[in-house]
């Protein structure tokens, strides 16, 4: 029985998506819930799972095509998977999907035994068999992409923390079909012979004028283009102004040092700084609700709930997952949710529901060493808090000079509805809450 594979229903805020890459070709076997293709939206990368076991009979849309909800992408023949060899062990392959180059491996159709024997080697290479990238550091999504596309992890530039390979790294690599064969050929080429020290050195030619002054034009990803659009919209539609203050984090650091081990043992998550800033922001938002509001035409919408966005930097760009009803959650619940968002962001598995909404945003440029910045409001919100690097500085405490861990804070706000008095007092409230964190725990 033939089954059409369609684009999943996209959320209301997403009009269309780009088909980034196919993970199967016509004639390949596919299992139920196995990923057939990746769709990139303005916010996340979505997977298109197979509804049943079968064989991919047709691929109707080439990679790079913009698609909409319900559009037919491919057709599979159900119930035929058991008769088909697994991917990577077939002696021959059907024609590639539209827009993709056919395999040029010589002798592939005449050497099924060699192809079968090569499958384990490819799997080893995909896991980083040359030792350049530890297979244990690869997420399941990355490992599956490598195995399905017969890629060597060592040949793909990694942008994740500690040299980790991310899903976006692999997706970006697959977007460059012309570069992949050259990289593979270069990796497979034998090393150049070492010349004898007695051999005459070849004549050295002067480089041609302008050599090395190359340029490369690449299209923006959908996420980067969306970020650019939203930033321009925020600056052109809102009257943005920033106010600054500084906070002494001595008490927060002492509290974290005192209870770090007990907190992690009791809750299974580290006690970071973000939960303190989320709690302090909620306390300030409750005192100055206009900073938790948004503008809709000539109306001001006061949100009586606190959905706090926490900006996360990824290799694809800055995204803002949202901690829902943060005022009802304790420190441990907030830390767990933020850590989970960070992990999903690195793996590219955030859902659109994780990124929609939000009434106020916190961004931390301090993790990159920023000492001070002016963050841009995440419209339609009206304010954003910027955290920065913690740096020991001499300050005057009770008439004495002392060295304290200080951080500059910044609040950018929409001056159309927020006055400077409210913004300054809002930031002072955050400062007071962080300098005496016991007040947040006692609710005083």
Description:
- This protein has 444 residues and is of the alpha+beta class.
- The protein is built from eleven helices and 19 strands.
- The protein has two domains: 2-100 and 112-181, RNA polymerase II/Efflux pump adaptor protein, barrel-sandwich hybrid domain (OB fold (Dihydrolipoamide Acetyltransferase, E2P)), CATH 2.40.50.100; 223-442, Chloramphenicol acetyltransferase-like domain (Chloramphenicol Acetyltransferase, 2-Layer Sandwich), CATH 3.30.559.10.
- It has helices at 112-126, 140-148, 167-174, 179-188, 222-237, 250-267, 274-287, 331-347, 352-355, 420-435, 438-442, and strands at residues 2-6, 17-22, 29-30, 35-40, 45-49, 54-59, 66-67, 72-78, 240-248, 293-296, 299-302, 308-310, 312-314, 317-319, 322-323, 360-364, 383-387, 391-397, 400-414.
- Helix 7 crosses helix 10.
- The N and C termini lie far apart (66 Å).
């Amino acid at each position: 029985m033939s089954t059409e594979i369609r684009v999943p229903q996209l959320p209301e805020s997403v009009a269309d998506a780009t088909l980034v890459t196919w993970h199967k070709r016509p004639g390949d076997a596919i299992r139920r819930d196995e990923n057939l293709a990746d769709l990139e939206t303005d916010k996340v990368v979505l997977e298109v799972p197979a509804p049943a076991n079968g064989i991919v009979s047709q691929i109707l849309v080439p990679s790079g095509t913009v698609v909409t909800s319900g559009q037919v992408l491919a057709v599979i023949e159900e119930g035929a998977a058991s008769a088909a060899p697994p991917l990577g062990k077939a002696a021959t392959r059907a024609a590639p999907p539209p827009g993709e180059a056919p395999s040029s491996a010589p002798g592939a159709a005449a050497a099924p035994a060699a192809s079968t024997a090569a499958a384990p080697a490819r799997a080893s290479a995909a896991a980083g068999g040359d030792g350049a990238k530890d297979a244990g550091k690869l997420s399941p999504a990355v490992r599956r992409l490598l195995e399905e596309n017969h890629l060597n992890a060592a040949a793909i530039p990694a942008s994740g923390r500690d040299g980790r390979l991310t899903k976006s790294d692999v997706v970006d690599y697959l977007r460059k079909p012309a570069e992949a064969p050259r990289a593979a050929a270069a990796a497979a080429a034998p090393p150049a012979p070492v010349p004898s020290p007695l051999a005459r050195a070849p004549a050295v030619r002067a480089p041609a004028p302008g050599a090395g002054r190359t340029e490369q034009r690449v299209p923006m990803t959908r996420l980067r283009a969306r970020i650019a659009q939203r930033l321009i919209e925020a600056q052109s539609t809102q009257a943005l102004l920033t106010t600054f203050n500084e906070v002494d984090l001595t008490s927060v650091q002492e509290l974290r040092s005192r209870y770090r081990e007990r907190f992690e043992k009791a809750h299974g998550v580290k006690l970071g700084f973000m939960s303190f800033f989320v709690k302090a922001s909620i306390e300030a938002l409750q005192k100055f609700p206009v900073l938790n509001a948004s503008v809709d035409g000539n109306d001001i919408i006061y949100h009586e709930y606190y959905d706090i966005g926490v900006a996360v930097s990824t290799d694809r760009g800055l995204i803002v997952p949202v901690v829902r009803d943060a005022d009802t959650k304790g420190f441990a619940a907030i830390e767990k949710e933020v850590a989970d968002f960070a992990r999903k962001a690195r793996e590219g598995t955030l859902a659109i529901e994780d990124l929609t909404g939000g009434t106020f945003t916190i961004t931390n440029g301090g993790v990159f060493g920023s000492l001070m910045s002016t963050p841009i409001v995440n419209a339609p919100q009206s304010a954003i808090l910027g955290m920065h690097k913690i740096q020991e500085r001499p300050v005057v405490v009770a008439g004495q000079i002392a060295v304290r861990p200080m951080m500059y804070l910044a609040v950018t706000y929409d001056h159309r509805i927020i006055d400077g008095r409210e913004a300054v007092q809002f930031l002072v409230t955050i400062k007071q809450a962080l300098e005496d964190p016991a007040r947040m725990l006692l609710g005083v």
